[in-house]
Amino acid sequence: MTKVEKAEIRNTELKVWCEHCSIRISPNEEQVVVRGKTYHVRCHLKLHTPAKPKS
Ligand SMILES: [Zn+2]
Asked: How far apart are CA 31 and CA 11, in angstroms?
């Protein structure tokens, strides 16, 4: 018999997917909510940071 150590799954009601990249945001990841939509902090930064600033 193999005892499989399962990762503890909880807070299922708090599962959140990023509106930008559609990847689930882990409970231990930083997230930001803007107008009721949740993003990874890094995705939110991308949305609000010019891709290539001039000069
Ligand atoms: Zn994201």
From this structure: 16
